[in-house]
Amino acid sequence: MVEIGAALSIASSAFGMIKRAVESGREAEDLYNYFARFFDAKEQISEQAIRGSTHSRVKKLFAGDSVEAEALQVTAARRKVKQMEDELRDFLIYTGQSDFYDEMMKERRIIRQRRVRAAKEAAERKAQLQDGIAIVLLMVMSALVIGGTTFLITSV
User: Fold this and answer.
1) Cys bridge to 74: 49, 108, 129, 131, which one at CB 3.0-4.6 A?
2) Mean of per-residue pLDDT scores for the chain
3) For 38-77, what is each residue's pLDDT tens digit?
4) Beta-carbon contacts of residue 98 (< 8 Å; ≥ 6 apart)
């Protein structure tokens, strides 16, 4: 899962830039782009975890990664991002910018709930479509085998 590793790298980079900028005296409101990158990366990790939990049965059957490897990667990334987010929060509180952080978190919760719901629904639709296609293909192949066998039996 390259997506999780890349998202974690982006989050770490944005975290470092935010921390250095606030240490040098910049206001958190001026660092919109870095906060956006950090939380976008965090969101990508969450979406990847949702996609991983809603694979179609066909994909689960032929998946290359073990369930344990996928769970380990998602859990490690979530913990690392959570640690960085906690440190960001503490840093903003200590620099007197806690109201900015509180407002951002309130708005974030609302938007995140909407996005998570939409991502989960899209992943479930995709999994159902893949399962449906697999069932249709198996039915067609079965019909061809039955029809071919019937043709061979009746032509002899």
Assistant:
1) 49
2) 85
3) 988 988 888 777 666 555 555 655 655 677 777 788 889 9
4) 92
CA–CA distance, 137 with 140 (Å, rounded to integer): 5
Cα(104)–Cα(97) distance, integer angstroms: 11
- 67: tokens are 């369930």
Structure tokens at 101: 């952080």
97-104 long-range Cβ contacts below 8 angstroms, 24+ apart: 97/22, 97/27, 97/28, 100/28, 100/29, 101/28, 104/35
Q: For residue 144, is pLDDT > 90? A: yes
Between CA 111 and CA 36 the distance in angstroms is: 13
> What are the residue ranges spanned by the domains of the chain?
2-123
Q: What is the pTM of this model?
A: 0.62
